[in-house]
Recover the amino acids of this structure.
């Protein structure tokens, strides 16, 4: 599907609601992980600092704490920012295809089987995209075979009109033909826009 | 356009949001709402609270660490003076002199002896030749450049106290 790659990583917030929810929830969890990890690292020194009776032990713990704090604070901020950026790009790569899927499902619901899902380079959900496109392809073929069958039935009915003499039967066949042709026209119309794969 | 909503959203004016959405090329009907105002405020509050809590915790604990460092260095300096006094029958340094490691040069250089980073110990009163004089005791003060607390050691009484 990459050959039709005409979309780019623009609009980092494609699906604001979903992306925000994922990013913000992840950031809160990231914070919790950082708090727990930092707490676990600092706890022994903090315990010694505030509970030991020996000044030299307190001093050693205080020095350890100061060294660790000097490194932990900037690394936490950097990690947080990197994690946020990573989340932004990752959700973008998931939400982009989801937007495309939704639009495609809507079109299928409207009876338009001409649309195909196209992913950008680096997008996730490639397997799902192929499955959806395969499904549309299969439905399209089925639809086409029904249309061909329709065409054949119309031909047979038109041929039978020339040999039937009963007026009532003729009238019934003519009204049936009209109905069939109308439906055929609809199907032809739905197939006419083949290749129109906007996103 | 259906403007009825049961929840207050961050994008209160739906028309405005839809215009923005069309401008940005969003798919029609896809994700018209962002986070609700309450959710957004709650999440930002949690993150800000974590940041502020963390900052306060590190600030308070760091101050305690600096104070412990000062007390330790002051005690070490007192022990050194005591040892020196026993050997030489006098203390080292005169009133007003200080040994420091806070960027300012020390005027009381002692070989193979240094204080921790940011600490400054100054001899406040006393005669080094007679440090145990009750009228003029040998007293030195210590302070860390990142803490406001000042600790004082009285050589005569052998006690450390916070000023």
């Amino acid at each position: 599907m990459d050959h039709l790659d005409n979309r780019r990583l623009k609009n980092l917030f494609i699906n604001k609601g979903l992306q925000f929810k994922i990013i913000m929830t992840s950031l809160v969890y990231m914070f919790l992980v950082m708090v727990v990890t930092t707490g676990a690292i600092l706890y022994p020194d903090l315990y010694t600092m505030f509970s030991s009776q020996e000044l030299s032990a307190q001093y050693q713990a205080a020095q350890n704490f100061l060294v660790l704090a000097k490194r932990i604070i900037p690394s936490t901020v950097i990690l947080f920012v990197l994690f946020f950026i990573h989340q932004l790009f990752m959700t973008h790569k998931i939400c982009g295809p989801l937007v495309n899927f939704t639009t495609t499902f809507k079109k299928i619901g409207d009876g338009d089987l001409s649309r195909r899902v196209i992913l950008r380079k680096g997008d996730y959900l490639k397997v799902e995209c192929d499955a959806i496109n395969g499904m549309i392809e299969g439905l399209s073929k089925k639809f086409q075979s029904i249309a061909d069958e329709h065409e054949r039935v119309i031909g047979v009915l038109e041929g039978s009109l020339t040999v039937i003499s009963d007026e009532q039967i003729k009238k019934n066949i003519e009204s049936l033909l009209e109905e069939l042709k109308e439906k055929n026209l609809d199907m032809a119309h739905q197939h006419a826009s083949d290749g129109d794969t906007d996103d | 356009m259906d403007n009825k909503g049961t929840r207050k959203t961050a994008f209160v004016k739906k028309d405005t949001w839809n215009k923005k959405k069309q401008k940005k090329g969003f798919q029609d009907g896809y994700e018209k709402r962002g986070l609700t105002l309450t959710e957004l405020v709650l999440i930002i509050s949690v993150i800000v609270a974590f940041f502020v809590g963390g900052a306060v915790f590190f600030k308070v604990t760091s101050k305690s660490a600096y104070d412990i460092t000062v007390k330790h260095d002051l005690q070490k300096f007192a022990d050194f003076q005591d040892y020196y006094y026993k050997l030489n029958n006098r203390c080292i340094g005169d009133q007003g002199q200080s040994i420091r490691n806070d960027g300012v040069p020390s005027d009381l250089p002692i070989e193979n002896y240094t204080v921790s980073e940011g600490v400054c110990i100054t001899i406040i009163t006393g005669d080094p030749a007679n440090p145990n004089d009750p009228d003029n005791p040998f007293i030195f003060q210590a302070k860390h450049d990142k803490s406001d607390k000042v600790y004082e050691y009285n050589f005569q009484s052998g006690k450390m106290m916070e000023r």
Q: What stands out?
A: The first helix of chain B runs from residue 14 to 23. The longest strand of chain B covers residues 119-125.
